[in-house]
Each structure stands twice: as structure tokens, then as C-alpha cells.
Amino acid sequence: MAALESASTCPFGKPNNAIEQPVESKSEATGGHGRAAQPTQEEQLTPPTSESNAKGRSRAQGIALVAAVSGAGFLNVRPPRLELALLHLLTLFWLAKQTFSSQAAVIILPTISTDLEIPSGRQQLVVSVYGLTFGCFLLVWGRLADLFSKRAIFVAGSVWVTLSTTVTPFAANEETPTTIRLRDQLDLPGAFLSTFGLGILLFVLSTGNEVGWATPWVPPLIVVGVALVTVFIFWERRLEAGNHCPPLLRVSLFQSREFSISMAVMCMLFASFNGFLVYATMNMVMEKGVHDVPFDELPDRRRVWNRPVHSKEEGLGRLVLLTPDVVASAASCIKTGRRIALNWDLNKLEVANFNRQPTQHHIVSLLDGSAFDDVYIFNPQQSSQWDGLRHFSAPFPTSEDPTRRLYYGGVTASEITTRSNTRIGMQYWAREGICGRGVLLDYAAFAERHGIEYSAFSDHAVPLSVLLEIAHDENVTLKRGDIVFIRIGVTREWDEKMTAADKQAYATTRSPQHAGVEGTEEMLRWIWNEGIAAVASDALSFEVYPPKKSYPRGTGKDVEGYFLHEYLLAGWGMPIGELFDLEGLSRICAEERRWEFFVASAPLNMPGGVSSPPNCVAIL
After folding, report:
1. What are the chain's domains?
2. pLDDT, tens digit (0-9, with 9 covering 90-100), for 217-273
């Protein structure tokens, strides 16, 4: 389709009233190829009328031609002024169509990449191949227009584009294009050499930076691509100089300095502009729009990886929802100025599970006791922390590697353990901080009011229906970009109810249990559709742990269980806060009768960091 579109971009062919002048010599007329050639635009002369009238007729006939294709042949009897206006509209239409055609592949690029598992580093290749097809077939169909008729090719292209655009969405099977064989008139070897030569070079240039230029197959492909393009140039020069079929490209044109400079400038212009269009369109379609797509309409709910590799946006993940407008609006939550830190003591948990080492704090004397320094050795996962995007992976198996697991954006474990690679590290969150409107859903207080007894160190699960009831009781309506805190009661139970023996038993058990929210599809749908930027809790794992395979419902049918960490962290790039100290915040919110506040968090600025203490403050 792109090929015929290229032939249909110029609707103005040879005027019907043009008078062809007799050819003086066969050699001159054929350009040295021994057959009669079609007169060029310069060789077509109009009758002895004014130049403006001739141009007007030519334009009017061009308009009439397009109108006839559209079924509106009456246009060529309209007044000249109307015809000129229609000409301008027609020109704008074709420019708009060309822009749409070139960007159509970009619009559906996210879906193509998801279905074909194309990594973000190779997405440019899809658009480049589309453009390469357009460019290579431009030579072929341009030559066909010379052989037959520019007007005929334009009409054929217009009809074909109209039909294919209408029919293609309903096609059930892949179509096989029919090859046009004009052995004596069409330079098939040139078409092959140019297409494959440029295609190979395009592939290597698009993927070399990702796979590494020293990869064994990269240098040979570069040599093959350059060789094919070189052979194409020599082949076209041979056709141009000999008595063979006309070349696709007249290489002699580049002997003109002005022409060569113009082509070089145009090449650089379109190369940079098309690259800009790809990322600009992707930004409009995905960066700004993906979070507006309802959960049930997401192409892949497990993988919302839509940002350029190593970019700031990729590093922020779901925090891109915290726009300046969202943060500025959240400042209106500050009414009384009361503030409370949400960080638990750094030396808690004194004994932690999963063999996590306890905090070590050393005080070092300087200058014979005139000054002191601190030395901290701690694991952020032991106490209050943000789980970063490098913390947890999700399964993305392939036939070659059924056990494959990836982190957000497709990051591999080897990338994380390579210290020089800081992709999706904590530094992206630290540089701007995590600031916005915080909302507390106080489940622990709700449970006390309703006589619900449970231990925070059990597999007690909080369903979405209860969270919605709490929000209703607190008169809270969630907004896009909110940071939602859920109080389970872990820190209070650890500090006030558990003995040293209880804590040691928890730390050494091989099957720990943590209370938290249900891991269900409806919970995921709610988090996504509400536009929540981050979630946090005083629970040890936010969701109930171990993850359950199903959850009972009153209807007698169980609902499937999901591991929220795999979706929120590895799939969506959403921060998960754990072991936040929400006891003081709960008391202040109850006193104020207000469960919304401004929250500011400054994670540690550690390039490549996996997690961080939150350094978080709530201001009411």
C-alpha cells in the first residue's frame, strides 16, 4: 500500500491539452536507450495562451481528476476562483494523508511491540522498515508512472489506497502481494539491491547499539549492506550508460553539486524529523495516554512498558502521574500545618525474616573526641522502605527460557548486578521526590469499630469492598495521582503486643505470614482505574503473604488470586511502601476528622539503588 501511496502523492500529471513536439532524433528522445520515451514535463508545451490561463487549466484538470475519482466530476465546471481554493484544499488533504500514513505505524506501535514482544530498543526499527518500504517502492512506482501515465498511476494509487484502507480491517488472512513483472522495462535487480542493502543497514543501525557493535553478526551484516548498496550504485550507472532498461535511479544526477547538497540536507532533515515524530507521537499516545486507558482495555495488563530505555520517564514509572499541576493541587490539603513523620525507627525490625541483617550503627570519634561521625550499615527492607523498580521481577517465560523473569521495562537480573548500569534505579525518584496528595484508608481503626479481630502476622486479607467502605466512611474521593496509605497495624503489634520470643520466632520461620490487601483482579482494576500513583502501608508486604491462589466470595465462587508485586512493580512501575509508621498519622487524622494530607518523601539518591528509606512527612 505504501508503494502505491507514493505514486499517488502528486495528482497533477500531463495536461490533456499539451502538444507534443516532434522528436528530432531517436537517440536524443530515448535518452540513449533506443526506444521512444514519454515527453517530460519540460517538453510539453501549451497553446499560445497566457501562462496564467495554462496553469489555471492544468490545475483545474488536476482537481477534476481527483474529483472524478471521488465521484464528483462536476468540479471542473466551477469558477476558477473556486477551483483554486479546491486546489489548496486538495494539497492540504494530500499533506495530511501523507502525515497520517507515515505515522499510522507509530500509532499502533505499542500494540505491535506487545504482540510480537519487540523490546523498546527496537521499536524504531518497525517504523523505519515501514518508511524504507515507502522509499524503495517509490523508485519502482515512479518508473511505472514514467512508462504508463502519471495520471493512471495516481488514479490506481488513489483507488487502491481507498479500497485497501476500507477492506484491510476486515481481512481474515494475510494477503500475498502480486509481483509486477516487466522484464524489459523494470529494473528488478536494482529494486532487489536497493531494498535489501538499505534494509540490512537499517536493521544493523537500529539494533547495533542495543545488542552491542562487537556482536559477531553485526560487522558482517554491515559489510553485506554496504556491498549491496555499492553494487546497486554501479548497476544503476551501468544501466544509465548502456543500452538496457532504464535505471531506477539516475546516478549522474549526483554529479550536480547543488543537487547533491540538496539531497544531503533533505536526508538529514527527514532523518531527524522522522525520529522526532516517532518519539513525539509515542509520547502523545502512550506517555500521556496510557494511564487514561481503562484496565480492561489495556493490551497487556502485566506489562505497561511504554517509555524509552534509560529515560527519566522509564525511571519514574507510575510516578509520571505526579505532574506539577497534581502536586500544586495537593498543597491545598495543608490546612492546619500539623505534620508527622512516617518513618519507623531505623533499627526495626530488630530481627527480620528472609535473613535480612539488622541495622548496625557506629559512632566514630574524630579529632580526639572533638567531633563524631556516624557509620550506618543497614538493609532498607528491614524497616520503613519504598520498594524500587529493581526490587521485584515478574515471570515472562519464552519457549527458549520458560523460567525467564524480568523487571520493569524488560530489565534483566544481569543489568541490575552490573554496577555501571543504573537503569530504573532509585536516583530517578530521589531527584524530584515523591510528593502529592496522600490518603489514609485506616483499616485497623475500621476493624476495631466493627469487632474484626486478626493478627498483622497472619494471612488476613482485606478485600476491596472494605476499602471502598472505609473511603465512604472517611468521606474520601480518590483523585488521579493520589498516594494511598493503608493501615494494617503491624508497627503497633510489633511494638506493643509481641514479645522478644514472638519476634525471634517470626524472624526464623520458613513460612512467614503477613496481613494485607487481597491480591485480586478487582484490586488491580481499582488501583489502575483510580489513577493511583503509589501505594504504601504499615504491612510487611502491602498485600497478603503468601499470595493466595483464590479468595472466597459469598456467591460460592472463588476469585483468582494475583501476586500484586509482580503487577505493580514489574508491570506498572508503581512504588510500593512497606512498614511505614502510620500510628501517629492515624491519631491526627481522627482528631482532624480528615484523612487527606500533603505528603513529601525524599528517597536516598543512590544511582542504581533497589530500595530506600522513605524519609516521608505528612502535612495536614
Report:
1. 1-131+145-175 (no CATH), 311-392+423-619 (3.50.30.50)
2. 889 999 999 999 999 989 888 888 876 778 888 888 888 888 888 888 888 887 777
